């Protein structure tokens, strides 16, 4: 199969217009010595055959597991109209809106997305999105380093371990100094965090709810951070913002997060959506694309890509970042998802998640030998201590049809018996009860 | 068109979660709760669907318009790939599943897709191994430069520069800078190739790598590319291949055979995955033998029994550059596309892309300045300097094309060509479409001589006229505010 429309006659006419004898003639600049040493690609297959092959492959993945795994990536319901809108080819087969007059649909959609992120985070400016929550957090850290001219980063170990590991990878060749502060009773450890604050600190990075699901109010920490002229960066879970205190309300300078929960399928790790919002004074340090409103020559409102002098295509090695795309289609999903829910719906979604997680906690604590950690409040994810190794328990629960949680021993030394359990609005009372029964049987 | 916030009506609902089937728990302490709710629009489902559907109609896209946006490669995106990506068995899988004990066997389908795609990309490019993780082309560049840094560090080489030609994509120097390198820029000679004398002068044992696009951003294949690579290797510098233009040489030459050590592929450009208004893309990174051990973790391996697993044990790995295994949804579509095209289809795609570009170039060179008059590959770069003398700039040409129903070519890039117009017709466009486009380009060339104002005032047929971009930057309005509605 090929999607090329050329007939033999077309090719003949075109070659003659070019003044070339043959197709091979067009490749005369590639020296014969550079011909591929091998190009052993299978022969073409029909669309029917490939669809069948891949359908069979998809069935090798489990789809009937009841999912209680989170870790920053959650199994939320996606209304059908989200899919319907992002499936419109006018959206998904367009490119970056470099030419605003023929891209107003995309530009307005991104402007609305930016506005939604500002509303959720209670911060002033959002960009048009970044690759994922981890890369967004790295970019936020780089803003702080540029803005303050300092290199010390205080990192709460309640920040998702995946993100923390990414920060270390990205800064291997840069002189960034990290200080990691262990969490105390699930929440950020004030005493320890403040101890390391000084006038060399570029930023403090916190997460809410944190990796263990614990909720915190970081207002007091942010105040102290500002006293030292450093920036406060929050990594947040967007669904929780329907209910929990926003980064803006706590005084954070930058908020980032993973937008997957806003209408984006889990998809085995991507594509996802990194969001970022900042206070207005940081706008020129912001990485990536930004859409702004303006007027046309008749004074009518329209939208354009703006503040492009920060970007790589103009500033090259002096740009704020090397990013030249965004996750527009994922950002559109988030915008449509949030617009469908509206302010009441988002609140309702947050409340359902919270309520079901609390119910699960209560049910699980009835199993003898299982301890639900209750030292700090949680949102839709929480930690339990099992009487035996969580890895083994998870394995046996998989056989019973449950992805029952994430064993923390994988990431944290000495926590082999701890399990992180996430409950979204999709989990029914009955499923939660079955989880509890099965767990009881396994233990 | 009104903003969605301006359509808000208190009390309307677009989605209901229904009654929660568990009792309301004890409320959360107030200090943890939001004081002011986010001001989101409340609308019905139809309100939302109609809002975005109508907005979509203000976009040009590949499915609706010819879109010869050079360097971005806007070819047709086969529909069946979208269907495959919608299979629940792919879209519903949690990425942590294979990291659970016993979970790997429940994600074999996805792991196999990643493994097989990696093998195909290796064969297509002549590289030894790929990491599928980088989430976009520029992310791949950054990963590639980090691999280069890890390699030199391991060898004990002290290197601080990366060489890029002045015609390169802006991401090349910025990726290198973000990874901690200083940049040396090599000018383009009058012949359109990187200035070889200057290159030799700048090349020494402080250079970590040379980053090149091949064919380059002028759409030209440098016949001396092997010599350039050999010179770099003599100084123990590595060669980085920016895969943005790989679609011009499928089955004709392979970066690995030429001597490139690291490369990324923009899957959406070469393998037709849709780019959705600016993303998502995917930028897998390939390496030659000597860099395999530095690839990001995890890697996918095939066990002796034919099953697939994730391998986290690589001592010299640069670490995690993405949360999981890459933009799986995009990789899956590229895999399906490669299987359908097969060997013959991939070669044909390249051949017809190059045919279309050369055809455009051959006819339009009588009307527009061709700064480097030689055979092009998949794209051709003109300069509108002749038209600009009459007051018709590349930007005006772009706007006039919009009026005529064509997405404009890339303008003002590469930076080294004045008033650049970079046209990439791509292989999926027919001769008729290209002929009609050429006709409009010729019409503009005539208008530039006879009636430049007719071009200057474009577009006049669109819902909006030319937008004030200066005002957008000077008085930034980046977010809807409640009081402004």
Walk me through the structure.
The complex is a heterodimer of chains A (443) and B (485). Chain A is α/β, with parallel strands linked by helices and 443 residues long. Chain A has 14 helices and 15 strands. Chain A starts with 7 loop residues before the first helix and ends with a helix. The model of chain A has no long low-confidence stretch (mean pLDDT 96). Chain B has 485 residues and is of the alpha/beta class. Helices cover 36% and strands 10% of the residues of chain B. Chain B has helices at residues 45-56, 79-85, 88-91, 108-125, 137-155, 171-178, 196-202, 225-234, 255-258, 267-270, 328-364, 385-389, 394-403, 431-450, 452-456, 469-474, and strands spanning 129-131, 161-165, 182-186, 207-213, 238-242, 262-264, 285-287, 299-302, 308-311, 380-383, 410-411, 420-423. In chain B, the strands form 3 sheets. A 7-stranded mixed beta sheet of chain B has the order 1-7-6-5-4-2-3, sandwiched between helices. Chain B has a 3-stranded antiparallel beta sheet with strand order 10-12-11, covered by helices on one side. In chain B, strands 8-9 form a two-stranded antiparallel ribbon. In chain B, helix 4 runs parallel beside helix 11, helix 5 (137-155) packs across helix 6 (171-178) and helix 11 crosses helix 14. The two termini of chain B are 13 Å apart. The chains are: A alpha/beta (443), B alpha/beta (485).
């Amino acid at each position: 199969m090929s999607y090329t429309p050329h007939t033999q006659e077309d090719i003949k006419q075109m070659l003659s217009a070019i003044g070339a004898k043959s197709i091979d003639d067009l490749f005369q600049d590639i020296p014969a010595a550079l011909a591929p040493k091998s190009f052993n690609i299978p022969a073409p297959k029909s669309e029917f055959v490939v669809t069948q092959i891949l359908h069979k492959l998809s069935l090798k993945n489990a789809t009937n597991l009841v999912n209680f795994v989170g870790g920053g990536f959650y199994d939320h319901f996606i209304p059908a109209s989200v899919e319907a809108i992002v499936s419109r080819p006018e959206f998904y087969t367009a490119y970056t809106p470099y030419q605003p007059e023929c891209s107003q649909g995309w530009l307005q959609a991104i402007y609305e997305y930016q506005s939604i992120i500002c509303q959720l985070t209670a911060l002033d400016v959002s960009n048009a999105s970044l690759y994922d929550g981890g890369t967004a957090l790295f970019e936020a850290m780089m803003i702080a380093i540029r803005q303050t001219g300092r290199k010390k980063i205080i990192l709460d170990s309640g920040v998702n371990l995946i993100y923390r590991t990414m920060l270390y990878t990205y800064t291997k060749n840069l002189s960034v100094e990290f200080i990691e502060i262990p969490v105390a009773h699930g929440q950020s450890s004030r005493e320890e965090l403040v101890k390391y604050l000084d006038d060399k600190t570029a930023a403090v990075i916190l997460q809410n709810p944190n990796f263990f699901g614990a909720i915190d109010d970081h207002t007091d920490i942010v105040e102290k951070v500002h006293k030292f002229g450093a920036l406060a960066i929050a990594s947040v879970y967007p669904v929780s913002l329907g209910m929990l205190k926003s980064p803006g309300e706590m005084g954070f300078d930058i908020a980032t997060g993973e937008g997957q929960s806003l209408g984006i399928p889990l998809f085995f790790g991507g594509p996802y959506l990194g969001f970022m919002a900042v206070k207005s004074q940081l706008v020129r340090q912001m990485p990536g694309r930004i859409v702004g409103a303006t007027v046309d020559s008749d004074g009518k409102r329209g939208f354009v890509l703006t503040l492009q002098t920060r970007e790589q295509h103009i500033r090259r090695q002096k740009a704020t970042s090397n990013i030249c795309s965004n996750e527009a289609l994922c950002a559109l999903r988030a915008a449509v998802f949030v617009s469908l829910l509206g302010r009441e719906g988002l609140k309702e979604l947050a409340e359902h998640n919270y309520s079901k997680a609390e119910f699960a906690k209560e049910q699980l604590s009835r199993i003898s030998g299982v301890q639900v950690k209750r030292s700090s409040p949680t949102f839709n994810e929480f930690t339990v201590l099992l009487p035996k190794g969580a890895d083994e328990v998870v394995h046996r629960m998989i056989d019973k049809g449950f992805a029952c949680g994430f064993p923390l021993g994988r990431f944290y030394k000495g926590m082999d018996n701890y399990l992180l359990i996430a409950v979204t609005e999709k989990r029914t009372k009955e499923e939660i009860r079955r989880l509890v029964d099965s767990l009881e049987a396994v233990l | 068109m009104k903003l969605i916030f301006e359509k808000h009506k208190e009390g309307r609902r677009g989605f209901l979660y229904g009654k929660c089937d568990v009792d309301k728990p004890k409320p959360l302490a107030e200090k943890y709760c939001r004081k002011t709710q986010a001001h989101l629009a409340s609308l019905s489902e139809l309100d939302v669907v109609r809002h975005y559907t109508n907005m979509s109609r203000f976009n040009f896209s590949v499915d609706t318009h010819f879109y010869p946006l050079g360097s971005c490669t806007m070819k047709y995106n086969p529909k069946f790939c979208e269907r495959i990506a919608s299979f629940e068995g792919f879209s519903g899988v949690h990425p942590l599943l294979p990291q659970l004990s016993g979970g790997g066997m429940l994600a074999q389908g996805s792991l196999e897709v990643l493994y097989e795609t990696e093998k195909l990309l290796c064969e297509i490019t002549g590289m030894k191994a790929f990491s599928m993780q980088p989430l976009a082309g520029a992310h791949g560049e950054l990963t590639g430069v980090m691999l280069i840094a890890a390699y030199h560090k391991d060898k004990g080489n002290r290197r601080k520069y990366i060489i890029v030609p002045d015609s390169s994509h802006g991401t090349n120097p910025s990726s290198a800078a973000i990874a901690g390198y200083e940049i040396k820029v090599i000018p383009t000679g009058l012949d359109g190739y990187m200035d070889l004398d200057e290159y030799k002068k700048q090349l020494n044992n402080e250079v970590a790598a040379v980053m090149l696009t091949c064919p380059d951003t002028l759409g030209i294949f440098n016949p001396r590319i092997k010599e350039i690579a050999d010179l770099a290797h003599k100084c123990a510098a590595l060669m980085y291949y920016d895969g943005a233009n790989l679609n011009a040489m499928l089955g004709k030459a392979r970066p690995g055979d030429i001597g490139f050590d690291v490369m990324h592929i923009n899957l959406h450009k070469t393998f037709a995955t849709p780019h959705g208004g600016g993303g998502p893309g995917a930028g897998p990174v390939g390496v030659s033998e000597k860099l395999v051990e530095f690839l990001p973790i995890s890697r996918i391996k095939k066990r002796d029994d034919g099953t697939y697993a994730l391998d986290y044990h690589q001592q010299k790995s640069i670490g995690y550059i993405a949360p999981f295994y890459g933009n799986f949804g995009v990789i899956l579509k590229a895999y399906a596309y490669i299987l359908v095209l097969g060997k013959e289809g991939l070669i044909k795609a390249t051949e017809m892309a190059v045919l279309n570009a050369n055809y455009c170039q051959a006819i339009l060179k009588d009307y527009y300045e061709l700064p480097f008059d030689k055979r092009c590959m998949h794209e051709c770069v003109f300069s509108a300097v002749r038209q600009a003398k009459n007051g018709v700039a590349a930007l005006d040409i772009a706007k006039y094309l919009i009026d005529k129903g064509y997405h404009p070519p890339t303008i003002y890039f590469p930076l080294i060509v004045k008033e650049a117009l970079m046209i990439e017709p791509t292989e999926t466009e027919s001769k008729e479409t290209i002929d009609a486009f050429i006709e409009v380009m010729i019409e503009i060339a005539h208008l530039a001589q006879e009636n430049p104002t007719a071009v200057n005032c474009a577009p006049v047929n669109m819902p909006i006229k030319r937008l004030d971009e200066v005002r957008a930057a000077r008085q930034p309005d980046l977010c809807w505010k409640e009081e402004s509605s």
